Amino acid sequence: MIENGAVLPMFYLPPVDYFTKLVDIKPDVVFEREEHFPKQTYRNRANIYSPDGRQTLTVPVIKGSKNHTKTKDVRISYDFRWQRSHWMGMQTCYRSSAYFEYYEDDFAPFYEKQTTFLIDYNSELMALLLRLLKIKLDINFADTYEATYPNLTDLRSAFSAKYTPDTEQKPYFQVFEERQGFLKNLSIIDLLFNQGPQALNYL
Fold this sequence. Notes:
The chain is α/β, with parallel strands linked by helices and about 200 residues long. Helix content is about 30%, strand content about 10%. β3 and β4 form a beta hairpin. It is globular, with a radius of gyration of 16 Å. InterPro entries: WbqC.
């Protein structure tokens, strides 16, 4: 149990391990938005289980001043129809799951409207996920960048999109597991669409 709270990055449809830690944190969570935007992280990508295995969904961002753009200032690019691609991908992967139809009306608007800033898009999705998972948590952001947080557990670099963590994860049913077995630490939507209201008990 993380007793003193933690500082976390704000991800796009975060992985299961992220939520496992989130429900373990009390009482305070601070979300980072003042850092320089790091590339190739879950801040703008998520992994789902496709018929061919792990599939990455990436939210394209407008190229800014390289690594010196603050996360809160990163804008989403709409140069191509990535929302349509993401939503079609989710339907292909999860239409036959037990709970996709139960939740699809909650997620569909996020793939129709255009949000300017990535942090706002991720925050609105996070609020939805917290509600669906029945996790009571206020979304509070850091007002300034701090290199260290003496009174909080710093989890800003605890999750890597480049490799699967070694942490144990109890298998749950996945639509295509007969093809490639259980894939751990996919996006939380994989757990939600497959387990529905039981997702919180799993976490």
